Amino acid sequence: MRNADEALIVIDVQNDFCPGGALAVAEGDQIVSLINAMLPDFAVKVFTQDWHPAGHSSFATSHEGKAPFEMTEMPYGPQVLWPDHCVQGTDGAAFHPDLLTDPADMVIRKGFRPQIDSYSAFFENDQTTPTGLEGYLRTRGITKLTMVGLATDFCVAYSAIDGAKLGFDVTVLETACRAIDLDGSLAAARDNMRAAGVKLEA
Q1: How do beta strands 77-80 and 71-74 pair?
Q2: Which of 18, 86, 155, 177 is flagged as catalytic?
Q3: Cα–Cα distance between 199 and 197 in angstroms, integer?
Q4: d(C-alpha 101, C-alpha 46), whole Å
Q5: Burial of 78 by CB count in 10 Å (0-12 exposed, 13-18 middle, 19+ buried)?
Q6: Catalytic residue among 86, 110, 153, 162
Q7: CA angle 114, 116, 121 (to 5 degrees)
Q8: For residues 47 and 10, is the Cβ–Cβ distance under 8 A?
Q9: Given this model, what pLDDT does residue 3 score?
Q10: HEC states along the chain?
Q11: How far apart are CA 90 and CA 27, in angstroms?
Q12: Which of 97, 121, 148, 169 is the most buried (most CB within 10 A)?
């Protein structure tokens, strides 16, 4: 067991992000057994879950003439338009069936506001609307975070950078993550994480 001030943050290990899903990350299912093996090592374990209402504003189908992975401008800035994914209550939004979810102390659902997307476990994409995760971790006495999950270059990276900005000591364990790597997004995410003070471990 690691120190009581360390938490494991498991990001979006959901069916739609795994092979066969609506927004599949290559080899996304291969991290499940690694994460399961890590769970007993941490006193505090938080899982995040993408949880979009149908017709979410980040879906390409919500924008006439737009295709998945095109960009659009939202009130809060540039937004990638995604295939419909992780719609509330669907099998795609469920955690991967092999992921051990019972050990989770808390599940943070994000992206449930129809007009704003949410990559980070800490904030919606406007960078001001909090999810409540910071307060939970503070009250549990957590100072160090290890992050794993999907996808390295989006939700994991955004979560890690926000965690570092909030003053947590953040490590991303890349062996237990997989990336989308959209037009060089993985290299950019790694650079941005390092610049924010996030430690990247193989």
Answers
A1: antiparallel
A2: 155
A3: 6
A4: 10
A5: exposed
A6: 110
A7: 110
A8: yes
A9: 85
A10: CCCCCEEEEEECCEHHHCCCCCCCCCCHHHHHHHHHHHHHHCCEEEEEEECECCCCCCEHHHCCCCCCCCEEEECCEEEECECCCCECCCHHHCECCCCCCCCCCEEEEECCCCCCCCCCCCECCCCCCECCHHHHHHHCCCCEEEEEEECHHHHHHHHHHHHHHCCCEEEEEEEEEECCCCCCHHHHHHHHHHHCCCEEEC
A11: 21
A12: 121
How far is the C-alpha of 127 from the C-alpha of 21, rounded, in Å?
Answer: 28
5 is an active site residue: no
CB atoms within 10 A of CB 84: 20
pLDDT greater than 80 at residue 5: yes
110 catalytic, yes or no? yes
Q: How far is CA 58 from the centre of its chain?
A: 15
- Residue-wise pLDDT tens digits, 55-109: 999 999 999 999 999 999 999 999 999 999 999 999 999 999 999 999 999 999 9
Give the pairing of strands 106-110 and 77-80.
unpaired
Under 8 Å between Cβ of 146 and 5: no
Q: Is 155 tagged catalytic?
A: yes
Task: Give the three-state DSSP class for 175.
Answer: strand
